[in-house]
Amino acid sequence: xxxxxxxxxxxxxxxxxxxxxxxxxxxxxxxxxxxxxxxxxxxxxxxxxxxxxxxxxxxxxxxxxxxxxxxxxxxxxxxxxxxxxxxxxxxxxxxxxxxxxxxxxxxxxxxxxxxxxxxxxxxxxxxxxxxxxxxxxxxxxxxxxxxxxxxxxxxxxxxxxxxxxxxxxxxxxxxxxxxxxxxxxxxxxxxxxxxxxxxxxxxxxxxxxxxxxxxxxxxxxxxxxxxxxxxxxxxxxxxxxxxxxxxxxxxxxxxxxxxxxxxxxxxxxxxxxxxxxxxxxxxx
Length: 284
Fold this sequence. Notes:
With 284 residues, this protein is an alpha+beta fold. It folds into two domains: 1-171, Uridine Diphospho-n-acetylenolpyruvylglucosamine Reductase, domain 3, CATH 3.30.465.10; 176-280, 2-Layer Sandwich (Enolase-like, domain 1), CATH 3.30.390. It contains ten helices and 16 strands. The strands form five sheets. It has a five-stranded antiparallel beta sheet with strand order 4-5-10-6-7. It has a four-stranded antiparallel beta sheet with strand order 11-12-13-14, sandwiched between helices. A three-stranded parallel beta sheet has the order 1-3-2, covered by helices on one side. α9 packs across α10. This is FAD binding domain-containing protein.
């Protein structure tokens, strides 16, 4: 199929891009790896595409003040290969699972957040780390916690006339441990179940599950690690948590029960991995 007719606009500034989004019948084009297939299948028919790929200031990728800033035009492959991503190890661990290398060469980090696919890795990483999403609209700039950005499948709290300009991830601190894993039919396919985990040596552990609900599901799992931080010791708790979290009806690739079992196993395994990493420096 081919996309329905649309107008194409390439603004020269962020303000001009925001003006072009007014009216609610326009979509932002950054990498296009999610948007173009939607257009080709005519699942979406925006009247205008607003191309932000060359806007000045949206290609920033830097660590400053303990925060990794990723602009809206920064490609996933650029992040994957950048020294700056070392400041946020969880992004580096998740990135190889994001589609295929060719897709990451065009797709953007902010575009993945804006698309809000329930099986996407980066929205789950952002939610796990409590990242901040910066939006620009006709009423100015506002900041939204990543955990509040995605409100449903392919749906965010951003207004139709708002543009995500950057996402800010807190840099890892000494004593932080991380875990990331997913199960898919083939590498690059949509995740049947996945987890992103952050454990802090001084106390506190967070898990974000994806592919099992209509948005990333975040849980404080600190208490699970207090008694027996081994995979066998955690499994009863992570299985119970998974049974609560998974609310998909299932499909031809996996029933609800199968996805819950996958999630329980992955959660226990990655919690142990993150816990060990967080504490290994103290025992070195």
